[in-house]
């Protein structure tokens, strides 16, 4: 958000001391030898100006006419430093930080602004309890992922049956939800039965990557990925194309690392033309450059390398969205290269460098200890790009705090739902969008039961 005039702090400034500088510099101190003073704009806005700064944490400065600055908010508590938010401070306007963090200690905290070589910012903070976060998440789940459902049970003459027992067992979800698969699924019926009974979406672990399909230069082999594609298509499962390139030097085909820039450009051009033409129209997305923040190809081929790949892929398959796919954007607040604002900069760079086709945001989501406030704020920032957002590689490390893991199990489980019809034969509940089998029993049915399949869809489809 970039405004001509700043808004008032929400929640009266929340937990920040003297958020609008109505009491001078009370609550605001300086680290280092910089100079700090109050100032007031012509429209009455109060702000701080810092000058002669020599370190990364030295307060605020007014934006000069220069480049935008990537700025972080950092909290220092008894447990150490924690990143809470990122923003891009732009010349000539006010930028807002949006973020959050979980603090597992009580007491005073210090607020730092990192890399404010250029920047001028306004702040909003609010302290939420875990109960408030859980309530908010549940409300969002009800709104986005579930619908109210009323099921009426009647007999063969159309007469309502009260006190009938309904058991609902969820099958495949109706919204995009899947897991990665590997080549072992090709000859394992148990694996196939487990996967295809639950999921409508998938991505291949390694089988479509460059180092798997061209192990030796010029010797391209798609036999394994072909077999997996054909199997998924026969079962109606959608596939993400992962990936055309991986911007990490450790995960290139071994022969790529010895190529000259000219040779690498030729090999990369051939790779795009080969894999995209091979699976054109058979995948729902292309991860064109995976983990672009590592910039292997940019370091070899120049700053326009990624944009060139995106344009080339879209030229071959212009109906399939081309995705960025990066890590640490919502997992780790400390990684400035992958922060939400850095991600938006990558999107802007692709557009500036000439890619005008379909585009999507992929988030790898490899969590250690998830921070729900930061995840939410990061997604809000990314949503400002108005592009599709997919969580592409979700996993959570084993540990004592598994909020995200527990929430995923709770919201996407395949446990049954049970209920009893009322006096008019109705059973009402809220169900996740997807396929269900309903099993109905009633005293009038003796020992028999009635089975019926149904699908719950979002109301905006109707």
UniProtKB/TrEMBL annotation:
Residues 162-462 form the GH10 domain. The keyword Hydrolase applies. Keywords: Carbohydrate metabolism, Hydrolase, Polysaccharide degradation. The keyword Mitochondrion does not apply. Gene3D superfamilies: Galactose-binding domain-like, Glycosidases. PANTHER family: GLYCOSYL HYDROLASE (PTHR31490), GLYCOSYL HYDROLASE FAMILY 10 PROTEIN (PTHR31490:SF2). Belongs to the glycosyl hydrolase 10 (cellulase F) family. This is GH10 domain-containing protein. The lineage of its organism: Eukaryota, Viridiplantae, Streptophyta, Embryophyta, Tracheophyta.
């Amino acid at each position: 958000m970039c405004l001509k005039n700043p808004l008032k702090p929400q929640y009266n400034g929340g937990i920040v001391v003297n958020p609008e500088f109505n009491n001078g510099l009370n609550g605001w101190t300086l680290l280092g030898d910089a100079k700090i003073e109050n100032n007031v704009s012509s429209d009455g806005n109060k702000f701080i100006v810092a000058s002669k700064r020599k370190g990364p944490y030295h307060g605020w400065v007014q934006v000069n006419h220069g480049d935008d600055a990537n700025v972080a908010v950092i909290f220092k508590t008894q447990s150490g430093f924690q990143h809470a938010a990122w923003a891009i401070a732009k010349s000539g306007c006010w930028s807002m930080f949006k973020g959050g963090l979980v603090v597992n200690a009580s007491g005073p905290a210090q607020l730092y602004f990192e890399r404010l070589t250029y920047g001028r910012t306004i702040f909003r903070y609010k302290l939420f309890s875990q109960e408030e976060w859980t309530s908010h998440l549940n409300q969002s789940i009800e709104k986005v992922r579930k619908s109210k459902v009323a099921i009426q049970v009647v007999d063969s003459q159309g007469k309502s049956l009260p006190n009938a027992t309904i058991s609902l067992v969820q099958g495949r979800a109706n919204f995009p939800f899947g897991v990665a698969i590997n080549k072992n699924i090709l000859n394992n019926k148990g694996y196939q039965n487990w996967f295809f009974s639950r999921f409508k979406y998938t991505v291949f672990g390694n089988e479509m990557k460059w180092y798997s399909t061209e192990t030796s230069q010029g010797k391209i082999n798609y036999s394994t990925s072909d077999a997996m594609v054909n199997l998924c298509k026969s079962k109606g499962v959608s596939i993400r194309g992962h990936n055309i390139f991986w911007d990490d030097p450790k995960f290139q085909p071994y022969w790529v690392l010895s190529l000259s820039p000219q040779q690498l450009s030729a090999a990369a051009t051939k790779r795009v033309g080969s894999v995209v033409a091979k699976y054109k129209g058979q995948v729902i997305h292309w991860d064109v450059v995976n983990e672009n923040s590592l910039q292997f190809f940019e370091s070899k081929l120049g700053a326009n390398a990624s944009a060139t790949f995106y344009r080339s892929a879209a030229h071959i398959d212009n109906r399939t969205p081309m995705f960025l796919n990066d890590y640490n954007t919502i997992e780790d607040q400390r990684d400035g290269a992958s922060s939400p604002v850095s991600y938006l900069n990558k999107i802007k760079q692709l557009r500036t460098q000439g890619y005008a086709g379909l585009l999507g945001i992929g988030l790898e989501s490899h969590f250690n200890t998830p921070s729900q406030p930061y995840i939410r704020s990061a997604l809000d920032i990314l949503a400002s790009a108005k592009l599709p957002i997919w969580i592409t590689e979700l996993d959570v490390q084993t540990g004592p705090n598994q909020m995200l893991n527990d929430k995923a199990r709770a919201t996407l489980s395949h446990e049954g739902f049970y209920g009893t019809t009322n006096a008019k034969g109705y059973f009402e509940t809220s169900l996740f969008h997807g396929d269900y089998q309903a099993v109905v029993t009633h005293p009038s049915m003796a020992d028999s039961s009635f089975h019926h399949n149904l699908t719950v869809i979002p109301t905006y489809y109707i």
